[in-house]
């Protein structure tokens, strides 16, 4: 009798533990959440309504097909193209080195800029555009945007947009929030006229001690059709990024990938005034 009781208790404990694990796993794993939402979106079969006043209906529809909670993490599948993106610039030391490599390989990229640095180094932003790259906003000074009041947030973004306009004459439409963080402010950002563009391949090139080989490994393992690859050309010593960038480009080219800017990847405009 005692034996049977112990067995029963053991089975019950194992059962409870398994159920517990499953619940924790489902609620905490972002990959699982994304899948469920994607399924829901597919099931509804219709694009979400247009919120962004600066986008055309066509642009809005294109984005809503690939967005997850208003955020783009990856371009559409079907073409062997990828987008290289560089955050936190411009930087007087590393941005020219990145531009030189991109020029050498005739690769176009997208730069997500900090307004404060745009104001300090406008000539580098101008050079990025002149050499065929696309520029976009990464906020004024890299604050965690969800913590700002709506007024402070709008002010931060407007200052950045104005700085880019002063430097280049362009009205930007694209935003990558610092840390990719847009929880709770997705709709506000859209209403302010921004597409929210994050990434699916994180090279973690900013991490102290990160080796060139580790960066290359991540790119090789995680890149697929439509990938958005995250690098940094500022915000610290970026010599590792500069050192491995040629090899990253060569490796992806050997795999048949072409490099496109974010507007080309998504089939939308990068600027409002063109
Ligand atoms: Zn950043």
Task: Give a verbal description of the structure.
It is built from 11 helices and 10 strands. It has 274 residues and is α/β, with parallel strands linked by helices. It has 2 domains: 1-45; 55-266, Glycoside hydrolase/deacetylase (TIM Barrel, Alpha-Beta Barrel), CATH 3.20.20.370. The strands form 2 sheets. Strands 3, 4, 5, 8, 9 and 10 form a 6-stranded parallel β-sheet that branches. A hairpin with a 2-residue loop joins strand 1 and strand 2. Helix 4 packs parallel to helix 10 (239-254) and helix 9 (212-222) packs parallel to helix 10 (239-254). The N and C termini lie far apart (82 Å). Residues 13-43 have low confidence and may be disordered. Bound molecules: zinc ion. Zinc ion (ZN) binds at residues 87-88, 138, 142, 178.
List keywords for this structure.
alpha/beta; TIM Barrel; 274 residues; 4-stranded mixed β-sheet; 11 helices; 13% strand; 6-stranded parallel β-sheet
Chain-wise SSE layout:
Blueprint: H1 2-28, H2 30-44, H3 57-66, E1 67-68, E2 71-72, E3 81-89, H4 94-105, E4 110-113, H5 115-120, H6 122-130, E5 134-137, H7 150-168, E6 174-175, H8 186-191, E7 195-197, E8 201-202, H9 212-222, E9 228-232, H10 239-254, E10 258-259, H11 262-266
Parallel strand pairs: 2-7, 3-4, 3-9, 3-10, 4-5, 6-7, 8-9
Antiparallel strand pairs: 1-2
Zinc ion is lined by residues 87-88, 138, 142, 178.
